[in-house]
Amino acid sequence: MKKIAALLLALSVSALIACSQEDEVKQTTNSSTQEQKIIIGSHGSDADIWQFIAQSQAAKDAGLDIDVKIIDDGVTLNIATIDGDVDVNAFQSWGFLKDFNKNNGNKLTAIATTYFEPMAVYSSKYKKLDELPNGALVAIPNDTANHARALLLLQKAKLITLKPNFNQATGSVNDIIDNPKQLEFKQIKYAHGPRALPDVDIAVIGNTAAQEGGLNALSDSLFREQNDGSINDMINVLVVKTENKDNPAFSKLEKIYHTEAVKNYIRDNFGGTKIQISQPLASLK
Question: What value does the mean pLDDT take over residues 185-198?
């Protein structure tokens, strides 16, 4: 009887050890397959693209759980990234990031390039910029990132001249030093550009707003940014808090962004006006 009791006790202990080992294996497996959550701050068409990516097979295969957080203002979005409310942001150009960092202690770092899309000048009254009369009314976006970019485009079109030290993150109409046509400026919300066309002579409109208003920068604009060597500052980048730049989970995002599925989504939804850019960040400097 004692032998039987000892045998039963030994079997019970063995069973408990086996169950414990099995639980450990399950926990290890669950731990290894657990998805890494990343909060991506964005807005407009960038947010649309990242919401598509969040549901993609590529994101699942990379073990990423992507949550897209909408923040409409660029400076606010960068501050949210610094504060840790956002892990990665996707909205800004290389030039905007550089100027923001100058004013904020280089607390942000780009980790990848994404695309270039042209901001452009549109009109429902004129076919060419040289038809523009003196005192023409010009609509430009009032949000920080696009306001400065619009002024740079008008300078490239030789309609105005800006201060030599014009800041792409904080520059404004107050930085205009020459305005030969005495243009008047009307600051409007970014998304309202197409709707403003009947009431102004020209409007500088970002590509997302233009597309939402049925406009295509490649065929409908009077003047636009060009995809040439001069647009490095206008290439969009993924940005993180500097201390997180080597996070391996974040480094997966560039590869996912440039997969064929994402390229096809962008091609099918943005009329050829979002040009994918995959190049070393060192080439932008």
Answer: 96
Planar angle of CA 143, 275, 125, nearest 5 degrees: 55
d(CA 138, CA 285): 32
Half-sphere exposure of 28 (CA within 13 A, CB side): 6
Nearest to 168 by CA among 259, 255, 97: 97
What CATH number does the domain containing 139 carry?
3.40.190.10
Average pLDDT, the chain: 88
Residue 256 in contact with residue 53, Cβ under 8 Å?
A: yes
Contacts of 141 (CB under 8 A, 6+ apart): 147, 150, 187, 188, 189, 190, 193, 204, 205, 206, 209
Contacts of 5 (CB under 8 A, 6+ apart): none
One-letter amino acid of 229: G
* DSSP H helices in 34-113: 44-54, 57-61, 74-83, 94-103
Structural domain span for residue 141: 120-225
The model carries a pTM of 0.75
Residue in the block written with tokens 């990379």: 62
Domain count, the chain: 2
CB atoms within 10 A of CB 44: 18
Question: Is the pLDDT reported for residue 79 higher than 60?
Answer: yes
Cβ contacts of 123 within 8 Å, gap of 6 or more: 197, 201, 202, 203, 222
Q: Is 276 helix (H, G, I), strand (E, B) or coil?
A: strand
- 285: amino acid identity, one letter: K
